[in-house]
Amino acid sequence: ALRRLSHYLLAHYQKGTRPVRDWRTTTNVAIDLMVYAILSVDEKNQVLTTYIWYRQHWTDEFLRWDPTRFDNLTQISLPVESIWVPDILINEFVDVGKSPHVPYVYVSHHGEVQNLKPIQVMTACSLDIYNFPFDVQNCSLTFTSWLHHIRDINLSLWRQPELVKFDRSVFMNQGEWELLYVLSRFQEFSVKSSDSYAEMKFYVVIRRRPLFYTVNLLLPSIFMMVMDIVGFYLPPNSGERVSFKITLLLGYSVFLIIVSDTLPATAVGTPLIGTYFVVCMALLVISLMETILIVRLVHKQDLQPHVPEWVKRLLLEQATVLLCIRDRKKFSRSRTQSSDISRQVDNNDSTAKLNHYGCEDPRECETVGGARLAPAFAGQAEGSPLMHGVLREITAIRQFLEKREEFRDVAHEWLQVGYVLDVLLFRAYLAAVLAYSITLGTLWSVWRDA
């Protein structure tokens, strides 16, 4: 019965002619689509590769028979090369995929033809990677007859749009991309006021799973930024902070080199996460510059003059109040400590008169001090060269101690300035990092939940 029916149907069949008895009759082709897998998303070349199950359904008026004549056969499979099939293609095709060849179609006794086949589709798609790795892509598959206008071949949807939208029964969801839904829409279009053509558009909406990129890209960067902030708690007068910051900056540079191949790249845009990495690198450089400035202030104080008064008022008085530094009273006491000690020595120690000459070199004090101090001790040590030598040595020792005390005062002042400035810059840096992190976190949270 199958052989007789196949010979009956194909004996005088003309596959080169549209299968209608009246040429004014429109052949209606119902199509359906189910996404099986998302194979790859090439952001650089803007190409989406999917594997779909595609179904066509139309009526062939020359493939009808009476089932009672052929052992009640109501359905038969025929070679697809032997009958007429619509020339429906996908407009976004950019390459022929490795699709398996299905050599047969099903034909019912009413002339209804069902062409079911899997297709690997490589289509052009406008991919927006700005929100990477929380991006959602919307790629369209447009089915249309390449030659026949709408009066000859019209398109329709095989199933209801709601059934097509949320149908994930055959989707393999173990990859990087998750299928959200498939939208369908019918429309007509014409080129330069010519005949209209029927189009059936399917919008495949997919979302990237961000867990892999969050663990391997975002968390290491966040950890490095946290370590950079913790590095501010190293003493500002310690040289270890500079080496620590340089090591951290070097580690972040190596991290960027490693992840550069992971980030998607296009000729028209850069993902926000790339900007995030660049800004983090800039923050690390700013942190290193701030550390170098502070270390410069608190080292080599013997080569620096006294702290200017306006710097004292600005940093040691006003900034301490603004920053709510608990021990800010210590700064005001330390600035007057050396002068108080000098006044106490002048009042209680009779040998403080030796300081009136202001000798910085002990050799100068030998000549000046010997001439001026001799009358004060004339009664006790007149004509005694040994006593004069002892007085000269005492004067030299006192001048040396006073000079060293002055260097210590200068060093202490610059250390206080460096400490306050370090706290000020650290809090400004911390505020910038927090504001930047909150902004990006909010944006990514909105995109992930959208």
From TrEMBL:
Gene3D superfamilies, sorted: Neurotransmitter-gated ion-channel ligand-binding domain, Neurotransmitter-gated ion-channel transmembrane domain
InterPro entries per the record? 5HT3_rcpt, 5HT3_rcpt_A, LGIC_TM_5-HT3, Neur_chan_lig-bd, Neur_chan_lig-bd_sf, Neur_channel, Neuro-gated_channel_TM_sf, Neuro_actylchol_rec
Catalysed reaction equations from the record: Na(+)(in) = Na(+)(out); K(+)(in) = K(+)(out); Mg(2+)(in) = Mg(2+)(out); Ca(2+)(in) = Ca(2+)(out)
Q: Which UniProt keywords apply?
A: Cell membrane, Disulfide bond, Glycoprotein, Ion channel, Ion transport, Ligand-gated ion channel, Membrane, Postsynaptic cell membrane, Receptor, Signal, Synapse, Transmembrane, Transmembrane helix, Transport
Neurotransmitter-gated ion-channel transmembrane domain ranges (all copies):
217-439
Residues annotated as transmembrane: 211-234, 246-267, 273-295, 424-447
> SUPFAM superfamilies attached here?
Neurotransmitter-gated ion-channel transmembrane pore, Nicotinic receptor ligand binding domain-like
Give this protein's Gene Ontology molecular function annotations.
extracellular ligand-gated monoatomic ion channel activity; transmembrane signaling receptor activity
**Keyword Glycoprotein set for record:** yes
One Pfam family named in its UniProt record:
Neur_chan_memb
Entry's family note: Belongs to the ligand-gated ion channel (TC 1.A.9) family. 5-hydroxytryptamine receptor (TC 1.A.9.2) subfamily. HTR3A sub-subfamily.
Functional note: Forms serotonin (5-hydroxytryptamine/5-HT3)-activated cation-selective channel complexes, which when activated cause fast, depolarizing responses in neurons.
State the name under which the record lists this protein: 5-hydroxytryptamine receptor 3A
Recorded name of the encoding gene: HTR3A_1
